[in-house]
């Protein structure tokens, strides 16, 4: 298995012509989404509009920046850099495991002492008590990667980032030039892990609670094709037993319910192509969402690529090879 394989294509495909892209969140499982989108770009897909929440929002932001700089090749390089940096942050974080733990438990962090302590603390204390200053290891990363000038460029695809208003529970959408580091952190703000992110006097949580992701922003103008990359399993075998497993499954069900309502209301003229996460993510434990081991992210990336390939084959929308 190659970790974070190099990008080989150097050709710029034509504009999207009515293709939209919807990206779910999923914390470290967002590497699955990265792999899926990378395969779509490799196949020559171009997107006029993109909407994402949580990890999908961060991926969408760097994707758009890369497209402005160098088309699909630039987008693929920008996404790879994001996940390389995420892995580097995790390598010096508190959830370190011994080689024996990695061998015995794979992606599962449940045996890790630090994870057990974090899980217990989240049940007993709020993030406002544990993290009153709102420290987020992703803030310096996004400060380094985010390029507002590229997001606001006239040729940039339309980018929408969803957040959830804590007081009203309603989705709030930020677009291109309005997307800042704080907006991206708000879109990925897990209420049990981080304090709510305040923007212009309003407090926001993870966008997945009110739209996972919101589809309405992608409907004007109406696309002919919508690619939906699921970053969370719609189905999970077995009955959750621990408090953390129960809470995780409740969150998954709630987030998917919002999405399914929007999917059922889409105009029939839109071809919806879903890249399913169930085979890759359906049996992974909740702790793996916090696992940023380079090898694990690479596995998810490859799973995402395979899932996208299956979707392309099944829908007969595989792009013809671009001329040399």
UniProtKB/TrEMBL annotation:
The active site is at 54 (nucleophile), 206 (proton acceptor). A motif (GXSXG) lies at residues 52-56. Residues 21-219 form the PNPLA domain. A motif (DGA/G) lies at residues 206-208. GO terms for molecular function: hydrolase activity. PANTHER family: NEUROPATHY TARGET ESTERASE/SWISS CHEESE D.MELANOGASTER, SLR0060 PROTEIN. This is Patatin-like phospholipase family protein.
């Amino acid at each position: 298995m190659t970790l974070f394989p190099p990008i080989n294509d150097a050709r710029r495909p034509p504009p999207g012509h009515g293709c939209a892209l919807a990206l779910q969140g999923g914390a470290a499982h967002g590497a699955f989404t990265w792999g899926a989108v990378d395969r779509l770009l490799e196949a020559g897909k171009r997107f006029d509009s993109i909407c994402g929440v949580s990890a999908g929002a961060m991926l969408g932001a760097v994707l758009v920046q890369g497209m402005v700089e160098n088309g699909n090749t630039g987008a693929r390089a920008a996404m790879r850099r994001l996940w390389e940096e995420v892995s580097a942050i995790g390598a010096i974080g508190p959830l370190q495991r011994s080689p024996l733990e990695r061998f015995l438990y794979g992606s599962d962090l449940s045996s890790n002492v630090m994870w057990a302590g974090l899980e217990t603390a989240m049940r007993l204390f709020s993030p406002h008590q544990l993290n009153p200053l709102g420290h987020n290891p992703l803030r310096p990363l996004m400060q380094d990667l985010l390029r507002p000038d590229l997001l606001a460029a006239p040729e940039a695809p339309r980018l929408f980032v969803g957040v959830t208003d804590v007081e009203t529970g309603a989705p709030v959408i930020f677009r291109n030039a309005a997307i800042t580091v704080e907006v991206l952190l708000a879109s990925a703000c897990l209420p049990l892990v981080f304090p709510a992110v305040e923007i212009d006097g309003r407090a926001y949580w993870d966008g997945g609670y009110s739209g996972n992701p919101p589809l309405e922003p992608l409907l004007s103008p109406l696309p002919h094709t919508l690619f939906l990359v699921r970053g969370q399993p719609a189905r999970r075998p077995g009955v959750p037993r621990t408090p953390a497993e129960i809470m995780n499954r409740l969150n998954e069900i709630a987030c998917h319910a919002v999405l399914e309502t929007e999917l059922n209301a889409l105009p029939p003229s839109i071809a919806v192509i879903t890249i399913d996460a169930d085979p890759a993510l359906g049996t992974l434990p909740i702790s793996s969402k916090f696992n940023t081991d380079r090898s694990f992210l690479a596995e998810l990336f490859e799973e995402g690529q395979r899932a996208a390939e299956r979707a392309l084959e099944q829908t007969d929308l595989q792009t013809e090879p671009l001329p040399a």
